[in-house]
Amino acid sequence: MKRSLVVTAALAVAVAGCSSSGSTSKNIAGSPPLVIHAVDAGTFQEDFNPYHLENVNFGTSGMIYETLEFFNKLKPGEVTPWLALEHAWSDDGKTVTFTLRQGVKWTDGQPFTADDVAFSFDLLGKNAQLNRSALEIAGTKVLAPDKVRLTFKSTSYAKLYNIAGNTPIVPKHLWQKQQDPVTFTNPKPVGTGPYKLSKFSAQLYEMEKNPGYWQPGKPEVPTLKFPAYTANAVQTALQQGELDWAGAFVPDIDKIYVQGKPEINKFFFPPEGVVNLLPNQANPILAKPEVRQAISLAVDRDKIVRVAERGYTKPAHPTSVPMPGGEAYLPAEYKDAAFKVDLEKAKELLKGVDPAKLSFTLLVPSPFTDWVNAAQLIREDLAKIGIKVDTRGVAFADWVSKVGKGDYDLSIRATPSGPTPYFQMRSMLYGDLAQPVGKPGTGNYQRWKDAETDKLIDEYAATEDEAAQRKAVQGLGKIMVEKLPTVPLFYSPAWSQYRTNKYVGWPSEQDPYAMPSPFTSPDAAVVLLHLKPAAK
Amino acid sequence: MRFLARRLGFYLLTAWAAVTLNFLIPRLMPGDPVELLVARMRDNVDPAAIDAMRRAFGISDASLWQQYLDYLGNLAHGELGRSITFFPTEVSTVIADSLPWTVGLVGVATLISYFVGTSLGVLMAWKRGTWLDGVLPAATFMHAVPYFWVALALVFVFGVTLQWFPVSRAYGLEVVPGFTGEFAASVLYHATLPAVTIVVASMADRILGMRNVMVTTLGEDYVVMAEAKGLTSRRVMWAYAARNAILPNITSFALSLGFVVGGSVLTEIVFSYPGIGSMLLKGVENEDFPLMQGIFLVISLAVLVANFLADLAYVVLDPRTRQEAQ
């Protein structure tokens, strides 16, 4: 059945090719809709409030509502003007002034102005529940129809991404009527973005092109369809070719998705943050740097990536900086560093440690089967140097709670990612985030405390000079290599599968212009703006 | 009447116990919903915003006792709160949206399985020694197989390999929900495989149960007497034997009606059916206290009501219970 379907599809393509006989017509009206799966969902709720965290329907931010600037996470430092043309910081880093693009219109025809930007940030200042980036907004001031000044309570250079790259701007004239923006579900969203909502039901919503979009001639994809798929249904959908763009973990991608057609059924899994083996420094043995060094030397990351991660990602750079892309953030002396297994040296390092005490439990969330497999491999590797590891798979909630409270010896956890490696470094290493054992933390789960680390992180946050910021991150990378506060394993892959039979121009390793995953916003909207109909 | 009053008192007590357990059990799970949310979003949330989220979701640090009193108070006003998973949707809306799918699918499937299974059981007991005996090993087999396995097998054969039936969702993507023939047809088409799963997997119980009781009943003196009177075999089979043999099956039917609301969680998950079972799974995964409480409440009330109906049916069907009651 499947094979005959493929033949039919091939025939259809052939017939279409004959009828348009050579003309590479790019007729937009006739362009097919793009079917997207971003997040697993059985049904959708009618929520298009871009400030809602999880349940907001995907595409609200990016495709409907836009941000002031676009930060390319795959090319740290690459910032594209979007609704704002430029920004200027005050000398103390507490005030930033944005110059806005003119001629942008909301989809109801009203012009987009500085009032909207000021209103959006005031909204976050007044409603802490919606202020997900915890921006310390002190005030906003409209200087001109295209100029707005935002004031913050503390130096906020390092938060530029959160301010300009991750805060969607909403229309004042519609939102100011809302009594309670926290529970507002915004069923009829009006934005500045390339798409507007055209249809909503519990199983499917659709967006259509905004004809008055400020980027002329774009987007070239006229309609987007978002069907609801649960995690297991999406596998079948990928297999049967129902989806054009998905961001899913597929267990055996060659068999289930590629199906012998790598030129159409493509995938690209760039690094997004790093997965670490966390050594809890509340444990006196793991607090010894030589023990962490020995662990790192014994772990065969190539094997973990090949076996547990199915080759979908790459072993991490010893600095943990995502590569490729993060070259400028590598300390000069470790530019070409790479992890290498060296059991002899590891044993040497452990000589001064009582072997009876080299026994740890490794806590992993059992639903993450790849991490469970990685944990088994780590157990085998560490046994070779005399470290006894007891791997324990626990329920997701239990794992979150235990790692948060520091109630573990070893565990595996991913870091957040941001437009520069600073974001992951801060979450991994900042001393202020290290909570005492027993109190749930929100980062630095291994409880690393080091004055030099904190100094570098503070230095990055205190300047807008990119060279100085890079230097701070390089310093942090050096600490990662020399002191191993955490043991980097491999990069978290950002899942994305895309088919080139309808549209081309997707991000790739050669042209990483945005995160390719459909669940990353506003990157997904940037991807859509790059797509062109495939030549028939 | 005293019998009914006593039963009613018992049900009220059970309802209170159920409500209290609904409150307690979700809170015994480790961790809290916001921590889980942050971990699931790969920590891509500013630590300082976590407090904001706690406030938005209405997660309080009040004592358990105070929370319990608030919960009972809200319940008395019919308020179930807002779901955390589907924030800011109200729990009552989530339940109202998903319950009809479950009741429709599992309810109809349970009715079919009950009637077909019971009738087959009666026939098999009556016509022992004929080809119908061949159904017995098949039924025993189906009785032993877990029903999610049946679901997976059906999905593989009829959904993926033959592609006769859709394998997920409650209706087609291209159909607009509404009172149209097209929508109804799509719903029926999509419900076929999950319904067949439930019927096939639960029918075996009915067949075996009914057949076994029926065989015992057929040996009773009053059945021999009815046959000796020269009644038609049909009348003996249904009015004499089956009517007596069906009592235990009524109880199990009433109980299974109660569980209709609980849904066939696994069936709904395998078929991505947007019923209450899928919602419960989401609620548990996210430690969504309000949603779990709401769904558990609806399930426990449904089981209680179904039990009460079974009690009533018993009184009507079996004169002996009426005598004892007086």
Quick gist of this model?
The complex is a heterodimer of chains A (536) and B (326). By secondary structure, chain A is of the alpha+beta class. Chain A contains 15 helices and 20 strands.
Overall number of strands of chain A: 20
Overall geometric form of chain A: globular
Largest sheet of chain A: 7 strands, mixed
Structural class, from secondary structure content of chain B?
A: mainly alpha
Structural class of chain A: alpha+beta
Whole-number radius of gyration of chain B? 24 Å
What does this structure look like?
Chain A is 28% helix and 19% strand. Chain A has 15 helices and 20 strands. In chain A, helix 7 packs antiparallel against helix 9, helix 8 packs antiparallel against helix 10 and helix 12 runs antiparallel to helix 13. Chain A is globular, with a radius of gyration of 25 Å. Chain B has 326 residues and is mainly α. Chain B is 75% helix and 0% strand. The mean pLDDT of chain B is 82. At the A-B interface, helix 5 and helix 11 of A face helix 2, helix 3, helix 5, helix 7 and helix 13 of B.
Indicate the topology:
The complex is a heterodimer of chains A (536) and B (326).
Chain A: H1 2-19, E1 34-37, E2 69-71, E3 79-81, E4 84-89, E5 95-100, H2 114-126, E6 137-144, E7 147-152, H3 160-165, H4 172-175, E8 195-201, E9 204-209, E10 223-227, H5 231-239, E11 245-246, H6 253-258, E12 265-267, E13 271-279, H7 289-298, H8 301-308, H9 343-349, E14 359-365, H10 369-383, E15 388-394, H11 396-405, E16 410-414, H12 422-429, H13 451-461, H14 466-483, E17 487-493, E18 497-499, E19 503-504, H15 523-530, E20 532-533
Parallel strand pairs in A: 1-10, 1-11, 14-15, 14-16
Antiparallel strand pairs in A: 2-3, 4-5, 5-7, 6-7, 8-9, 9-10, 11-18, 12-18, 13-16, 13-17, 19-20
Helix pairs in contact in A: 7-9, 8-10, 12-13, 13-14
Chain B: H1 2-27, H2 33-40, H3 49-57, H4 64-76, H5 91-126, H6 135-144, H7 147-161, H8 181-218, H9 221-228, H10 233-245, H11 247-262, H12 265-270, H13 276-285, H14 289-317, H15 319-325
Helix pairs in contact in B: 1-14, 5-8, 5-11, 5-14, 6-8, 7-8, 8-10, 9-10, 11-14, 13-14, 14-15
